[in-house]
User: Fold Protein arginine N-methyltransferase domain-containing protein from Hevea brasiliensis.
Amino acid sequence: MGSHHNGDRASSSNGGAALVDKDVDFAQYFCTYAFLYHQKEMLSDRVRMDAYYNAIFQNKHHFHGKVVLDVGTGSGILAIWSAQAGASKVYAVEATKMAEHARTLVKENNLQDVVEVIEGSMEDVTLPEKVDVIISEWMGYFLLRESMFDSVICARDRWLKPSGVMYPSHARMWMAPIRSGLVDQKKGDYDGAMDDWYNFVEDTKTYYGVDMNALTKPFNEEQRKYYLQTAMWQNLHPHQVIGIAAIIKEIDCLTATVNDVLEVRSNFSSSITMENTRLCGFGGWFDVHFRGRKDDLAQQEVELTTAPSVDDGTHWGQQVFLLHPPDRISEGDCLNVSFMMNRSKENHRLMEVEIGYEIRQSSGRSLPTLKNKFYIE
Amino acid sequence: MGSHHNGDRASSSNGGAALVDKDVDFAQYFCTYAFLYHQKEMLSDRVRMDAYYNAIFQNKHHFHGKVVLDVGTGSGILAIWSAQAGASKVYAVEATKMAEHARTLVKENNLQDVVEVIEGSMEDVTLPEKVDVIISEWMGYFLLRESMFDSVICARDRWLKPSGVMYPSHARMWMAPIRSGLVDQKKGDYDGAMDDWYNFVEDTKTYYGVDMNALTKPFNEEQRKYYLQTAMWQNLHPHQVIGIAAIIKEIDCLTATVNDVLEVRSNFSSSITMENTRLCGFGGWFDVHFRGRKDDLAQQEVELTTAPSVDDGTHWGQQVFLLHPPDRISEGDCLNVSFMMNRSKENHRLMEVEIGYEIRQSSGRSLPTLKNKFYIE
Assistant:
């Protein structure tokens, strides 16, 4: 019943993309967060930790004596910090068995009188009261992978007081043209897989009397998708960014609706800043800001960025969309890019992307627009 | 409804292990078989392919003019061979979208008048008639991982004529003591993970004011399970087998019930055959035989074995259960081993294993029994 209900709600509120059945969602998505190893990976991300720590402790006025909700508390870290910053009450909601560990940590750190850990999904739990602050670390790769912000919106609409504050308050998605040796590696892997296939078809016919050539087309599509069209996780070096980065999405966490984040559409231009290089693809990342709200500003604004960095890389890395073949390009050229991203029909937590671009060379000549399909898996 | 029904049937027929919810089962288990890359991996296993090819074509009397059922046809290979061997009709059942590719292959190989591909789970489909032969490649790692034999039993009980034949007809599980450098590698990985954890707890306390020491115990259990207690896939070299291998399970595919395969219990002895070595763990594998039935024997018996081999390794490899720390052991010593395997409570397709052993040294001295828990994931 639950899954059917989810299904109905899905088609009306999820832009046609089916919400994954609840049990399947748990088995595929939530369960990864039940592992301490995964929590530790996020807790070891110093850039992430510093940002949230500073956002809270440099803005105690937002927390002192206030009621806080931590959406997706995981190990409980944000809830614990909120309590240490003086919150009178913290509700820490966590869908997985990690909630038990959060409870343990809360007790060990003597905060059980303030922090109440609730195991359940945000959409299902009931709080005894509305809250002054919603804090959450909901960002997935390239911001929206995992679609966890939906749960934050749900929490906000149900539990945030009219004067309440969102932590973070704002989020942005960025994109820039890049160069990367990965494009040659993936092309090599793909070519190798196809060479291997042709030998396989030959052998299967010779030794086993079965002609598998009819499957070459679907096999090829499967390998193209896997090797060439799936967005890759990378920690890009700033030197790999070959053009001016552009903001492709801006979100006000206080007012955004699920509808606002179902789709990302952006047309932007990017001037190339590197001489004689290759346009190997595009890199995508995000930043979030802790600004408070207009009538209750943060005393100290904090930024958490996942832009390519030498020293301050994060566990999010960037998402890389590779172009095959790469284009020769140089300083003075300009790219006109059309970007579109929406949720996968099969799984609302994954994304489908279309990137089209046109190269305006410094000579004035224009190279035709090509559209490329990608998958954020 | 489907999943609840499965649940009821599960508790009564699955030894207490919950059958995974149908949709979850599809998302976690079946879906991997929908990839051509995975099918190709199995189709490229020459030992596997040769065994089934020879079993069929060296026993055409079992197929000529007969009605055949292929359980879990995948790409359709066994169904196609059955038709080429002269079957009058072949029903090829496949739960995933791979069925569409099987249909394509059947057509391209001009067998659409004989082979009917049916997309659906074996438990749900209805055939127009009973069959003379059930052929299936159902074996998972260490034979029973995936619990696919349940579906073959279901097919047999519903659709096999009283005089029908099973392909394969018999299956056996084997076990032997082994040596392996993997034991040092995994111990190193585990130690490294724990060292890293202790530093992490220190840093989190110092920089972020949160004491995570209370999670050391569960983190340690999680890493022990992952690094030390999870059965590993390996293609063992015969020189790694340091004692006499033993049969720990025998299955007659014509008569076995689901109850017979819910649990594997065996006490066996193994004489050590290598001087001055280390007992690093146990290797497990299986073989199947194509013998026909007593009143309708195969003309040519065929064996498919996954025992450690230099030239004839298979994609199944062996399952390796490592012991920490390894024991010094030598020719003349003898192991008394107790082996127990049953289905995981959370997922009937995965296994939990307990291995206890006692070393009877050639001197007559006996080293105490130790019991070790393992997981086949």
Summary: The radius of gyration of chain B is 23 Å. Confidence is low (pLDDT under 50) at residues 1-13 of chain B. Chain B touches chain A at residues 3, 21, 23-24, 26-28, 35-37, 40, 43-44, 49, 53, 75, 77, 80-81, 84, 101, 104-105, 107-109, 193, 197, 200, 204, 207-215, 218-219, 222-223, 226 (CB under 8 Å). The first helix of chain B runs from residue 2 to 13.
